[in-house]
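ok trying this again, last paste got cut off
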Amino acid sequence: MAPEVTTMPDEDSLIDAARDAIGCGDSATDWRIVPTEHAEVFAEKAPSLAKNLRGECPRGIADMYEDQNSRAVSARDNFKRTVALADNAVFCTASLGALLLMAGGLQEPLSSLGPWVVRVIGLLGVVVSGLAAMWLRRITSGGFANEWASERAKAEAKRLAYFKAVMENASHTPLDQLLGLEYTRRFLLDNQIDYFEQRGDEHRVAAGNALNKSTLCVFVASTFTGVAGLLSVMQPHLAVVAGVGVIASAYAALVISQSAVNQNRQNADRYRATVDQLRSRRLDLDVYRKRTASGDERAVQEFFEPIFVALEADHKEFLKIAEQRESAIGDMVRRLDAEKEALERNSEVR
């Protein structure tokens, strides 16, 4: 009886086995760094990878990522919440200043109520401008923008460290190297491409909406200013219609400020540039799959090195954008100062 011949799986079989074990991505959940859950999912088709994911190093880095990510989310929410309050308060200050101007011009129609209307609007203006100053002070003194950027950059650094650890801890067999490659391909490369494309589109749409709204408000402001000038020729008190234009201008400033704080145009361009780099690198994936399956132990690291560099560069760019956010906050402070002066000028009944 002839001895049984054991055949080693060829390169294509190894590649197919690794790809089948890891599968395609799910952008809704793949962003999470959960090695224990992943180990359970891959325990049957990729037991060696499951063992790797249960190791102290991947689990430890994952825990550090979760902690850092929670801090980043908290810092982001704190920054955005406080900025929204301040920005809207600045807008309300400008609007109340315009209403004061209108009330001052309508003293005759308002009769005895006129002075009281002015006092109430003036008091509201003082309170709202004070709140705006308080919230802006919190933002500038607390360094909220830099805190958010710093915490997010640290969290993303832990994300990269996690995948580096998974690849480094894989055994040197071609199959285990392929499993490390496919795991990082799905949960890092593909997921980051999906995320960056989605966020880039969101920022691009937001930037376009801000432009459309602000230009429409400028049109409304200029129209009402012109109409007020014409009406004042017939009835002087109708000049108060110009106050609507002031409010429209204030809303245009609010929309532009919100877009500047969110850095919509800059972020859209940043995400697009990174996506282009990641997609370009992904085109070489089959070449490195072949190299890995043939026993080239350097292939996995070589494939992902430019990807890590691109993502790290994106993190640095995110930190630079935080400085531009500070500039947008400075513009908000200057707007508030100007609106407070206008409020004081309009406080006297004419």
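PB: full thing came through this time. The first helix runs from residue 11 to 22.
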